[in-house]
Amino acid sequence: MGNNWGIYGANGYSGRLLAEYAVKQGQKPILAGRSEAALKALAADLECEYVVVDLADPTQLLDFTRRVDVVVNCAGPFSATAQPMITACIAGKAHYLDITGEMDVFEWAHNDAVSSRARDAGVVVCPGTGFDVVPTDCLAAKLKDALPDAISLEMAFAGSKQLSQGTAKTSVEGLGKGGCSRIDGALVSEPIAAHTREVAYGGSVGDKHSMSIPWGDVSTAFVTTKIPTIKIYVPGSKNTAKKARGLYRWRWLFKRTWIQNFLKKRIEKTVTGPNDDQRTASPMHLWGRVENASGESKEARFVTPNGYDVTIYAPYAITQHLLGGVEASGSLTPSQLMGSDFVWSLNDVTELEWLN
Predict the structure, then answer these.
(1) What does pTM read for this prediction?
(2) pLDDT above 80: residue 247
(3) Using an 8 Å Cβ cutoff, are 213 and 179 in contact?
């Protein structure tokens, strides 16, 4: 079983962590990406096979996806990598996983045409199998089960602000788009921090003023729960929220190619991602609340390891599940594929605490 799955973007921050973890579990995934020098060095360290795959080369892509049963795409920004790799996985009959949190990727991957093609090929397409969006997707499913007629869903998370290069670059792309929530079933573009509220994160975080952000669950939680109004929050003071809303008028500037390229080059020079000790010291606190038309509500919270650790454990576990053989196919969210209890099967995740 060990060598019939591959990690694309294996030489990036999250890809390397996943590859190292897999090898510790006795696995030998095929390491793939664009940089032969970086891949060759990593493959030598881990004693794994490597293959150079250029996303602009359909032949290389198809050759890669035909060699493996599962591809885990760890190469962000996924706005550039997800569509060609998903297309190649469907053609090569390989299951597709990634660790994106990008709403546009989710919207594309879960459209009926892509899902139908994946079903016809007998493969699963499951984007968002890292911290984005496994914990929140499972939480959304649990809250929906607790209040089946819910019409609104709010979720929030708090923890480490240290980012990998890929995540930081994705955040730069987001500056040109602004915020987004789901209101009455529709995606609504809005300023970041258009909505604010107090959130009872619990533990060392406590209660925090929080602001809305365009997190992937605005897309995926709707697929999972069909709840029509969905908002996602992170901690942000009233002053921070005010500044974030003010950036919305400048999003046209952040869309400029030269601005994007300048900021991404800066990230490449300055961002390395958290080390092992920093990750261990930075757990993530998650909270969620649903409400129905009568005003009844359910509220819960729990704690996971650092987001990058979840982004190791979750895609690895899902890969092993797929390698074991599944009847499922088509485009699925993590909880649809693995069940709503999945996140609580991962290392060091606390029990769900119901607040009402």
Answers:
(1) 0.91
(2) no
(3) yes
